[in-house]
């Protein structure tokens, strides 16, 4: 089933408004509260063998989508549509964090970010080569995890003291046992095969206090995809994400010893609950010197992740100036040292 949201006032397309958190008409400006079935919701169905092809309700054009796509826009008329069949049953998200940064705000923020690069080429910093900027709802699993930890270790405390003409070293050994229980809430792991895991990890944190119950109107005007991996398949990644934190916490309970030797460390992490969630990401494609650079922006916080090109000319000038400055500083120190010696 294809969902197409039309304005009840003038019949034109409606999109999700990040500022008002409503559906907003692109023509007359009418706003409508977010509900699962707002007024003037137009639906159409497609056959099972047409899961990658359907007709736009607005202009009749044939649109092709990938099997994972759940929301998109018509390339011909720009109408935003939601493919509801791909958001039902076990494919239905439980939660969503809506966009709060509009496309215009994302463009402006990206331009400002480009100008902050110390070694970024001057031509790149003009930010006038943006090829495309796309708002995407990326599928994530949010895990509530519990870790039961038992640690056996041997710790030492060393004391040195002097008695007469001798220096003594006294080493005491301690058997240590820790029984720890840790809870982790909403550990995010992206479930899209297309998205770069490192980039998605660096976009964190998302403001989970902004989580809302999922409703399809939030997707209107954006691209959205369903998950490629189940929560069971991605559970090892979630466990790996908290492993460093677990190790840090264990060490914090073992302070005060000069040395530690682990005899046994058992960590049992279980998934208490997982939430299929859509999180907002702006993807920016940027042309520079006949190559394409891709950047990602957190659609709630504005945090940008990506590697801008490096100007080796700027880098060379910086190193040269640093070398000259260090040389001048060295000569001043040398001169002052010689002058001080003559005074002596």
Automatic annotation (TrEMBL):
What are the alphabetically sorted keywords of the record?
Membrane, Transmembrane, Transmembrane helix
Organism of provenance: Sutcliffiella rhizosphaerae
Q: What is this protein called?
A: TFIIB-type zinc ribbon-containing protein
Give the transmembrane ranges: 315-336
């Amino acid at each position: 089933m294809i969902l197409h949201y039309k304005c009840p006032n003038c019949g034109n397309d409606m999109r999700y408004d990040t500022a008002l958190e409503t559906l907003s008409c692109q023509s007359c400006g009418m706003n409508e509260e977010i509900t699962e079935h707002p007024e003037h919701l137009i639906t159409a169905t497609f056959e099972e063998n047409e899961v990658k092809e359907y007709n736009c309700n607005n202009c009749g054009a044939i649109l092709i989508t990938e099997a994972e796509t759940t929301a998109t826009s018509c390339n011909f008329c720009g109408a935003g549509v939601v493919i509801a069949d791909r958001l039902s049953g076990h494919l239905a998200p439980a939660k969503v964090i809506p966009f709060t940064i509009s496309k215009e705000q994302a463009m402006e923020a990206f331009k400002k970010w480009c100008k902050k690069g110390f070694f970024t080429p001057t031509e790149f910093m003009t930010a006038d080569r943006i090829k495309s900027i796309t708002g995407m709802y990326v599928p994530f699993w949010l895990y509530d995890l519990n870790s039961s930890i038992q640690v056996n270790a041997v710790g030492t405390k060393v004391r040195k003291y002097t008695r007469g003409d001798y220096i003594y070293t006294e080493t005491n050994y301690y058997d240590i046992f820790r029984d720890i229980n840790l809870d982790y809430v909403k550990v995010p792991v992206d479930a899209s095969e297309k998205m770069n895991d490192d980039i998605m990890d660096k976009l964190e944190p998302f403001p989970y206090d902004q989580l809302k119950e999922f409703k399809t109107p939030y997707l209107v005007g954006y691209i959205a995809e369903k998950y490629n991996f189940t929560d069971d398949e991605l559970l090892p990644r979630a466990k790996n994400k908290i492993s460093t934190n677990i190790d840090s916490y264990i060490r914090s309970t073992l302070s005060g010893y000069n040395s530690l030797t682990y005899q046994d460390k058992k960590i049992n992490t279980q998934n208490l609950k997982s939430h299929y969630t859509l999180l907002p990401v702006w993807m920016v494609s940027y042309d520079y010197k006949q190559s394409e650079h891709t950047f990602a922006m957190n659609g709630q916080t504005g945090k940008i992740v990506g590697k801008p090109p490096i100007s080796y000319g700027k880098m060379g000038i910086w190193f040269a100036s640093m070398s000259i400055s260090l040389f001048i500083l060295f000569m001043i120190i040398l001169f002052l040292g010689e002058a001080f010696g003559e005074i002596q």
